[in-house]
Every structure is written in C-alpha cells, then in structure tokens.
Amino acid sequence: MISRIDLRGDALPEGPALRDLLPRADFDVQAALEKVRPICEDVHHRGDAALIDFAERFDGVRLESVRVPAQALADALTGLDADVRAALEESIRRARLVHRAQRRTAHTTQVVPGGSVTEKWVPVERVGLYAPGGRSVYPSSVIMNAVPAQEAGVESIALASPPQSDFGGLPHPTILAACALLGVDEVYAAGGATAVAMFAYGTESCPPANMVTGPGNIWVAAAKRYFTGRIGIDTEAGPTEIAILADDTADPAHVAADLISQAEHDPLAAAVLVTDSPDLAAAVEKELEPQVAATKHVDDRIRPALAGRQSAIVLVDGVEEGLKVVDAYGAEHLEIQTAHATAVADRVRNAGAIFIGPWAPVSLGDYAAGSNHVLPTGGCACHSSGLSVQSFLRGIHIVDYTEDALAEVAHHVVTLAEAEDLPAHGAAVKARFGWKVPESK
C-alpha cells in the first residue's frame, strides 16, 4: 500500500541531493498557469457575467447573482447542527487566543539624540479569503483565514467559495454558517481561478482586494501566481502533506491513523514516515490495511495517496539522520513521535507546523489547537511561514530626524552618495545646509 525508501548505511547527501531522494507529488503550477490565464482575463473584461458563465461550466449551476444574500447566511446559521456549531465556536475561540497574541505594536528606536526610526504595523485594507468546496467542505478554513485577518485589524473582508448545485448555487451551508459566526457578511459563490480573478480585478458586485489568502486546488495556486505583484498572496498551496519522525517508542496504530488522516484529503496528498525502526515500519504497514478498510474515501483518495510517489516510509540510521531528512523535506505538517520529542522538535528548522508527542496529532491543529492550518507545502517551509496575523500586516518605517541629528551624519550620507555615483542624493542633504556639508561633531 505504501512504498519504502531505504537511506540507511551511507552518509546522507546534503541539500538538493537529499531532497531529490524524498517523495513528492507532481504539482505543475506553471503548466496550469497558461490554462487559467484566459479565465482570469475573461473575468477582467466581463465581470459578474463571466463568473456566472464559469459557474455553469465548472460547477453545473446557473447563478442569478454571485453575491450570497444576507438571508442565506442567517438561514445557514439557524439550520446548523448544534454540535457542529459548538465545535466551530470553540475552534474560533482558541484561534482568537493564539492569533490575538501575535499582533505587533509600533516600536521606536532612538538611533541618535534627535534621530529616531519607528516601525508601525498597518493592516491591509481589504482581503479576499478563499474556502475550498470540492471533495470536502472546509468551514475550518474559513476560521483559519478570517480570524488572523480580523485580529490584524483588516477592515474589509470578503470570502469566496464554490457554488454547489445541491444547495441552489450557494456555497455549502456549513461554510455560510461559519461566515455568520465570524461576522463575515460579504460572501460570494465563486470557485477556483475565477474567485481569485474576482478579488484581483474586482467586478460589478465585488470591489478588488489587496490580498488573497486561503488553500485551494492547482487552479487556485496558478491564479495566485498569475496575480502575484498585483495582489498579495499567502502561498501557492499544493497538496497537503504529513511527515512523521518516529522511533521505536511510537505507537504504530497512532502513526498509521495520522498518515491516513492526511491521505483522505486528496489522491495527491503526501503521507511520509521517517523512522530508524524497521519494526515500527513493519507494524505501521500492518496497521494501515485494516484502518484504511474501516474508513471512507478509500478508493478515490486514501489508497491512491498512500500508493502514490508522494508517500513512503523512509528508513534512516537514527533520529539524527531523521532530522536531516525532515529538514530537507520541509513538511507542511511534521509530527515528532520519538523519545524526548520536545528536544527533538526544538532542533527542527523546516516545517509549517510541528506537533509534539503522541497527544498532538495533526487533526488537532486542523481544527482546535488554536494554531493555523494554512501552511506552506511542497518544501516551501524552508523559506515561508504559515498564515498568521503578520500575513495581513505591513511594516512601515517612520524616520524622524532633527536638524542637528541630520547635520551629525550628513558627511556620511554625502560620501556614500558620491561612492554610488548618485550626486543628487548628496545634494539633497547639502541643500539643507547652504550647500556646505557640516563637520561632524
């Protein structure tokens, strides 16, 4: 059901050579880019009419309006199962606790007497959030996008999710209910690249946004790449990933269950176990079969994901080598199920989120840990972070110098300007002092 990669015996290669030995899904955003280009430009030129036509083409429903009526949001919340509502409310509460603590405050550095630099943090004015609606419904993604934007102080928040023919062209009612719980009342029935184009260009019903965030399929990722520079994005999210670094102290039933939990997302989902214990590897393989047979989405998602080139059990000589492997892999989700798991986790450099020990499965982070589950995929954790309050803030430097403070450093400014052959830069300083550079004190 899942392949093995044996890296024992020889010294592990460094950098790209090690990454090339590890499993990874095929996810060609560049190829998809050319297919989304005409879709995005059609939305640019025809606005809502293009969104309605694409909804009929891609989602099988003819919309009367792209904007979801306020009454539909209210009705979705009224009809929400009480247990689901309670779970969503607790997820929101915990996410707010974590994300509120991330908010940065302005800081002033007194560089010299009379000269200071202040960094203030300003939220983007308007963001467009995306909640997928393909194989599964993701109200949790509504929470993970909306909460940090709200805690950052973003004033204008809109959300798009694909129209569903089963619900009269509206997004899934649980998505709408989550929006209502969060106070997000600007919601659109738009999916994939069309939703990103709607936010990037704006249409008759939807003003343009400064930034678009949220996970999605390859068409969403390609549209984000297409509009990078015009709008800010969080990341080009690829198929979900779990990597587990485990030794012989790990429970094979837990490890197998956690691998399956991510495999059920998508046939391209990656499930990777890195271990120095052949006994654990064999026990996990034994556990997979009955656990897979006992769940849903077996043939269309889980089996293809576990059997795909993106999933494997990787055997290493020890936890030390395992750390090198997981750092090279840079997983979206990384579980540490080893002896002294906290100490091992402290040494990890590259991961979207780290889950320590047997009682912190990735599923907890997906819903109710308080952490954010919008995380870098495809090895991007080596340079990118997950979604947070900081994602929606811009740092602006405010420079405040007195005449004396400028005079004290003027000769350095002029010297550097002349060294760079930019004499007008120096002249801008000289003009303030009668064209004579003050002597430094």
Word description of this protein:
The chain is of the alpha/beta class and about 450 residues long. It is about 45% helix and about 15% strand. It has helices at about 15-20, 30-45, 50-60, 70-80, 80-100, 140-150, 175-180, 190-200, 220-225, 250-265, 280-295, 300-305, 320-330, 340-345, 360-365, 405-420, 425-430, and strands at about 5, 105-110, 115-125, 125-130, 155-160, 185-190, 210-215, 230-235, 240-245, 270-275, 310-315, 330-335, 350-355, 395-400. The strands form 3 sheets. The chain has a 6-stranded parallel β-sheet with strand order 1-11-10-9-12-13, with helices on both faces. Strand 4, helix 6 (about 140-150) and strand 5 (about 155-160) form a beta-alpha-beta unit. Helix 8 runs parallel beside helix 9 (about 220-225). The longest helix is centred in the N-terminal third of the chain and has 19 residues, at about 80-100. It is globular. The mean pLDDT is about 95.
The level of helicity is 40-55%
User: Taking strands numbered 1, 2, ... along the chain, how are they ordered across the largest sheet?
Assistant: 1-11-10-9-12-13
Shape: globular
Q: Which band does the percent of strand residues land in?
A: 15-25%
Q: Quaternary status of these chains?
A: single chain
- Tell me how many strands there are: 14
N→C terminal distance: 75 Å
Q: Sheet with the most strands? A: 6 strands, parallel
Q: Uncertain regions: pLDDT < 50 for 5+ in a row?
A: none
Q: Which structural category fits the helices and strands?
A: alpha/beta
Helices, by number, come to 17
**How large, in whole angstroms, is the Cα Rg?**
26 Å
User: How confident overall, as mean pLDDT?
Assistant: 96
